[in-house]
Automatic annotation (TrEMBL):
Alphabetical list of InterPro entries matching this protein: Acyl_CoA_acyltransferase, GNAT_dom, N-acetyltransferase
Taxonomic source organism: Qipengyuania gelatinilytica
Cross-referenced SUPFAM superfamilies: Acyl-CoA N-acyltransferases (Nat)
Stated name of the protein: GNAT family N-acetyltransferase
Entry-linked PANTHER family: GNAT FAMILY, PUTATIVE (AFU_ORTHOLOGUE AFUA_3G00765)-RELATED-RELATED, N-ACETYLTRANSFERASE DOMAIN-CONTAINING PROTEIN
Gene3D superfamilies: 3.40.630.30
Domain annotation N-acetyltransferase: ranges: 11-179
UniProt superkingdom: Bacteria
Pfam family, one: Acetyltransf_3
Length: 185
């Protein structure tokens, strides 16, 4: 049974279950949604990410979560916390937040609504000293949301990731401390 971690006005943020992979494959794994994340994944890749996320939640009490739309009960995205695990990053192990919204729910404010709940979770219950978010320089909507959330660009943490296409290989990072987050409230 999934744990409900947070609720917002329109969303339930709940833990991942093994049975979620097929639904994620169907509604989130589209060429458009995955365009800046290396393209659509195979089912076994999604299952492996789920296993990793569930293990992280069991071990550390945080992970990525599914976003369930209260009005329809449908999966509309995922968002959450993991550890920076790219070996090319100089800040491996930091608390990394991230999000993904299905295409037919874009421009409704779901990402911001979900990520605000995730940041509260990170600082209040997980007790993270700071969080970072990674994206490609070309993913303008992603880093615009980071800025809207009060995150600060950290050029000192940028790195090149050749596993992505050239237009997405420059990984940029933003960060936010607990103090910065609290001063916005």
């Amino acid at each position: 049974m999934a744990d409900i971690i947070a609720e917002t006005d329109r969303l339930i943020l709940r833990t991942i279950e093994e049975s979620d992979a097929a639904e994620q494959m169907r509604v989130l794994n589209t060429p458009t949604v995955m365009a800046r994340l290396g393209g659509p994944k195979e089912l076994h890749e999604i299952e492996a990410k789920h296993a990793k996320s569930m293990a992280l939640y069991a071990r550390e009490g945080f992970s990525f979560l599914f976003l369930i739309e209260k009005e329809t009960g449908e999966m509309v995205g995922h968002a959450g916390i993991k550890r920076v695990d790219n070996p090319l990053a100089s800040n491996e192990g930091d608390h990394e937040i991230g999000w993904l919204i299905r295409e037919d729910r874009w421009r409704r404010g779901y990402a911001e609504e979900a990520v605000r709940a995730v940041i509260d979770w990170a600082f209040i219950r997980v007790d993270a000293p700071h969080v970072v978010a990674l994206t490609s320089e070309a993913n303008v909507p992603s880093w615009k949301l980071m800025e809207k959330l009060g995150m600060v660009r950290r050029k000192d943490l940028d790195f090149e990731d050749p596993s992505y296409p050239p237009e997405d290989s420059m990984t940029i990072q933003y960060s936010l401390t607990k103090e910065q987050w609290e001063s916005q409230k």
